[in-house]
Amino acid sequence: MMPGIADNLARIREAMAAACLRAGRSPESVQLVAVSKRVPVSRIQEAVAAGQRHFGENYLQEARNKIKAVAGPVIWHFIGHLQSNKAREAAALFSVVETVERRSVAQRLHQALAAEGRRLEILVQINIGGEPQKSGVLPEAASELLAGLATFPTLVVRGLMTIPPAADQPEASRPHFRALADLAADLIRQGLLPAKDCQLSMGMSADFSIAIEEGATLVRVGTALFGCRR
Ligand SMILES: *Cc1c(COP(=O)(O)O)cnc(C)c1O
After folding, report:
1. Rounded to the nearest whole angstrom, what is the distance from the C-alpha of residue 80 to the centroid of ligand 1?
2. Ligand 1 pocket test: which of 100, 176, 204, 230 has the largest number of ligand atoms within 8 Å of its C-beta?
3. Which three-class secondary structure state does DSSP give residue 171?
4. Which residues of the chain have pLDDT under 70?
5. By the 8 A CB rule, do 221 and 35 touch?
6. What b-and-e string marks burial along 166-185, b requiring 16 or more CB atoms within 10 Å of the CB?
7. What is the pTM of this model?
8. Following DSSP, what letter does each residue of 66-82 receive, concatenated?
């Protein structure tokens, strides 16, 4: 039998609260983003019924039908690789786009939003480990990108997102999470990120507790909530 989603959710929320306690943070300072890629609508609906609000999807083609089908007060985050030619649809479907990494894509988002007189919350994805094949802007290029984004008034820059290098041990992610928090602090000092409620999206099933200890405000959890993806 599949594990009950409500049980998994309760366990994850407990672990999140424990990590907050260890870090001297309020439990309300961290949101769980349920990563629902390749998870059917019925299981997503189960999570909604159990009180989950934030969901993350990676693929537009998959997300467009699911977003229509899921009922309830759900906030959708786009967490996949975003191409310029998909920016218009991403802006239409999602409340938050966590993976902005190029000015050209941001410009497309802005054009789509300006035409509709809307705004969109975004995060800038940082390639914190400086990996050659990884999405995200390099830490040293973040200030230039953010300065450019300031010219797009429809884009509400809320903070940073990262996926650290793959590791066998969750503890191996800690220095990368700390580096993202340090980078955000630096960018806040430069006036390029908001000082109030700056968001750090970091931590997945294996390492979300460590991410919270290092300052995460959004943790993106898939497997621990929905089970293994096929
Ligand atoms: C799939 C995915 C996750 C969730 O990973 P799990 O290990 O299943 O929790 C989080 N963030 C991103 C960007 C993902 O693609």
Report:
1. 10
2. 204
3. helix
4. 1-3
5. yes
6. eeeebeebbebbbbbbebbe
7. 0.97
8. HHHH--SS-EEEE-S--
